């Protein structure tokens, strides 16, 4: 990541995976998220889609 800056090349650097929230096994997900879109990645990892507003909330300064 330093090479582009050293050469004066413009960069866009962003956080990744802001559209998902990681959980453990599907049976550990809190009931309040049961109606949300879930992706069972494997028996130990379940992903929950974030709401459209979530990524903007996590980038705001406190």
From TrEMBL:
Signal peptide residue numbers: none
Residues passing through the membrane, by range: none
Domain UPF0261: 1-52
Entries under InterPro entries matching the protein: Tobamovirus_resist_UPF0261 (IPR051353), UPF0261_C (IPR056778)
Pfam families recorded: UPF0261_C (PF23189)
Protein name from the UniProt record: Conserved protein, putative Y4OU
Species whose genome carries this gene: Cutibacterium acnes (strain DSM 16379 / KPA171202)
């Amino acid at each position: 990541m330093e090479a582009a800056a050293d050469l004066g090349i413009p960069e866009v650097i962003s956080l990744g995976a802001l559209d998902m929230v990681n959980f453990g096994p599907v049976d550990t997900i809190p009931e309040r998220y049961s109606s949300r879109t879930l992706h069972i990645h494997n028996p130990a990892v379940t992903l929950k889609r974030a709401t459209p507003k979530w990524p903007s909330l996590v980038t705001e300064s406190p």
